[in-house]
Structures
1.
Amino acid sequence: QKEVEQNSGPLSVPEGAIASLNCTYSDRGSQSFFWYRQYSGKSPELIMSIYSNGDKEDGRFTAQLNKASQYVSLLIRDSQPSDSATYLCAVRPPGGGNKLTFGTGTQLKVEL
Amino acid sequence: EAQVTQNPRYLITVTGKKLTVTCSQNMNHEYMSWYRQDPGLGLRQIYYSMNVEVTDKGDVPEGYKVSRKEKRNFPLILESPSPNQTSLYFCASSLRGAPETQYFGPGTRLLVL
């Protein structure tokens, strides 16, 4: 089992719809969770971080964490063509430090 | 402007010819790391450094070397590159203990023939 798993996609949604991106992780002791956005040919950039169970909202983005199910998700409301990118889920393993384990990413396509 | 720079951005080389990819950050970050990104495998950490003169292996260190003589610089060295090291490489830096502060460099695309 991979440490961090994501569906590779592509996930296609129409403009204005809600895009839902999912990620599961294997280490139950993980404490911190991050979503990165990566445009084609560019470097990843952090868009959301979440540390406790529940929802965290930032503009059109909502991160959801369920530690019991070892599941973290990212919702993008009112999806725009500019949201078309690959979204990487990253997990900080137990023990702290700076190491992050990344999933392989989900490609999102927002269609006009 | 806070940034991580990498050079070169693109490199084509041949098997066995030593090369160095430079990385520099201007944010006074203690932690620096190198990743490689391959289709279907995602981002994998090669080496990391907690501070000057402190380096350690990541998940895929074979065939790579690093050094950290200055806080701002963290070069990646391929002493004898092989075709399986063809990849997209990213350098990143962050404050120690705060991975949410991580900045990535623009990436170096390497092709080993």
2.
Amino acid sequence: GENVEQHPSTLSVQEGDSAVIKCTYSDSASNYFPWYKQELGKRPQLIIDIRSNVGEKKDQRIAVTLNKTAKHFSLHITETQPEDSAVYFCAASIETSYDKVIFGPGTSLSVIP
Amino acid sequence: ETGVTQTPRHLVMGMTNKKSLKCEQHLGHNAMYWYKQSAKKPLELMFVYSLEERVENNSVPSRFSPECPNSSHLFLHLHTLQPEDSALYLCASSQGASGSSYNEQFFGPGTRLTVL
């Protein structure tokens, strides 16, 4: 089955700096890669996703890149702000009749004002 | 509000108790999920239901028993749990339409379970 690894497990950056979180997956059939953000005491929420036919996607200060050959994808956050502090989960999914999503172990990001 | 609700929000139970967690989605989705979130395994998929049929059971102990009476409701029945079962139990739903599964999972707020 699919296995998703994520690094680093914790990350601290100064406000205004960039943050990068990297994930790898094992199943070459995976074709959808969402990223979820979970603030302390709140539910995970989708922040950005990328499909296998795209190499990069950007939404304001957040961007994701995908390298299908190497089976890795990354989340880039620029100009970090204190409200970016949260746990970020990457995930990989294979197209089926339901949306089974395998999550990585998460990265705890702290943005220091 | 994401349209997925869970009750109760907090539950404390003894190892001999029987309790149930309830999840309801108001989004018209076809798939519903139970996840266990703990320090050791942040988001561990337990069960998946698609169109009210269980399609995934990730080697979950039988002391956890899911039930999906219709596409809007999902239950997790708990029976003779262990202290290591203490965790946050998250319900989620997604459109789950066949042919196109690139759909966002909408999570509920979770039930914080403590087993004494």
3.
Amino acid sequence: AQSVTQLDSHVSVSEGTPVLLRCNYSSSYSPSLFWYVQHPNKGLQLLLKYTSAATLVKGINGFEAEFKKSETSFHLTKPSAHMSDAAEYFCVVSDIGGGFKTIFGAGTRLFVKA
Amino acid sequence: ETGVTQSPTHLIKTRGQQVTLRCSSQSGHNTVSWYQQALGQGPQFIFQYYREEENGRGNFPPRFSGLQFPNYSSELNVNALELDDSALYLCASSFSGGSLRYNEQFFGPGTRLTVL
């Protein structure tokens, strides 16, 4: 069975400092992994995706994530936080175990201090 | 913004009633998924439709059902509404086919359902 664990419910950083949002997953098949962002009162937006190509994936707005199969992790990073990055971030896994399923993590709320 | 639209934007129903939510896919997409997002939580996968058939389902009871039409638009139907069904319902479209599996999903703005 698939599962996604976002290790931090809240992360607070200062503007200009690095961001690290942690995600571990479990899947019996070769999954695709995604990070989505949800700003207040706005829809979900795709940041980046991993679909069995390069393990280091670059996304929009300077975000990137590294797929580590041995650690079953897919952590999201950004070298320098911006105030506009404050939002809810979701790690997502999709695979076909028992029929197609997409599982969202519980989310990590990112706060960015001036 | 994505090209996925949902209607209505808000809806209020009473317990025991039935509701139908609608979704129009982004152009070129042939797959639709539905999610339930309770306040303060991540979206929960309800089911996915591809070629007008359900091809994946999450842990939701049979009173949650759906349809996909030949133009790839979709409906989510919920019977015998319960108070806990109050949530934001999200529709997402994507393209499935050939070597493209589990492609990224594009989300609509959602329908906010309140059950009293």
4.
Amino acid sequence: AQKVTQAQTEISVVEKEDVTLDCVYETRDTTYYLFWYKQPPSGELVFLIRRNSFDEQNEISGRYSWNFQKSTSSFNFTITASQVVDSAVYFCALSEPFGTSYGKLTFGQGTILTVHP
Amino acid sequence: EAGVAQSPRYKIIEKRQSVAFWCNPISGHATLYWYQQILGQGPKLLIQFQNNGVVDDSQLPKDRFSAERLKGVDSTLKIQPAKLEDSAVYLCASTPSGRAGSTDTQYFGPGTRLTVL
């Protein structure tokens, strides 16, 4: 069965600091997808990124970057020069496109990020 | 393109009462998901529909929860009777494809926050 672990429950930083959110996953499938979602105080889940299991290239999008390492089953998310607007709960998630419930997302517990001015 | 719509946004009921939530997915999306998010946790899948058929309802407490998607478009999730532990945010998501192996990203609605007193 698939499982996603986000060991950091809460992180607090001061604006302009860099911050890394950790995500470790478990799956028996060789084909899977990993996601990060942001949940601001309004409550809606906002999609940030999707990676497939065959693409270990790191990705950068503005101040956001993601580090995918199959060897350690990790998919970490770094925010560079954090801003107050980055304050939110961040979820890592896993889906197995060929599983019984294909496409179903298994979420981690979430990391609450607070960026202080 | 309009996003996933959900209503109501908030609902407060007393235990043993009934409640229903509505979701209208993005136009043309074949697959629809209902997730339950208890405070402090990641969302957990309750039920997945492909068009008007159920793909996975293994985590749906069928003694009190029911869901339908009669015309393969919008969907209703019902709880009858509600318990205190049903207090949560109920999120709806949709994807274009209904096929196993698809690579779609799930886009979420704003959720319905249910409080059971």
